[in-house]
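Collaborator request, handled under Task 6.
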Amino acid sequence: MKIKYLIIVLTALCALNLATRVSAAETAASANPRSHSPEGTTVTFGTPHDGDVVPTTFTVKFLISGMGIAPAGSKSDDTGHHHLLIDVTELPPMDQPLPMSDQLRHSGKGQTSVELTLAEGEHSLQLLFADYAHVPHDPVILSEKIHITVSADAVAETAEK
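Structure tokens returned to the collaborator:
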């Protein structure tokens, strides 16, 4: 009788543990719902362009087509703000708020450009557009990756190509 009771109790505890894990996963998924992005939305660089040689400090201009710009924390349909990925080899998870780091720069005030200082050498840049909570849209709005060369001998450009 004690063994039968023990089996029932263990079975109930296992079921409760499984239900708790499923509930936690559902809660995590619903805590970061992804905002919709309209079909055809694109994000690109105004400057620099793929293959450019730039000075150690230069301006990066962000362009968005199909959506509006809004600062982080401002929840409004079809809007978001830019995130600049620098020398990123693996994209962050697209269903969570984007982390902030030297390689993932937030433009949470709604900026459409940033002055960037990088070490001399080869670098890659990519733009990722995200919503008010720094969560990438669905579908994801990600630019093509561009490659630039930073050189102390380069002259800063004052106009777009």
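The cover message to the collaborator said: "Residues 1-31 form one domain. The chain has one helix and ten strands. Please let us know whether this matches your experimental observations."
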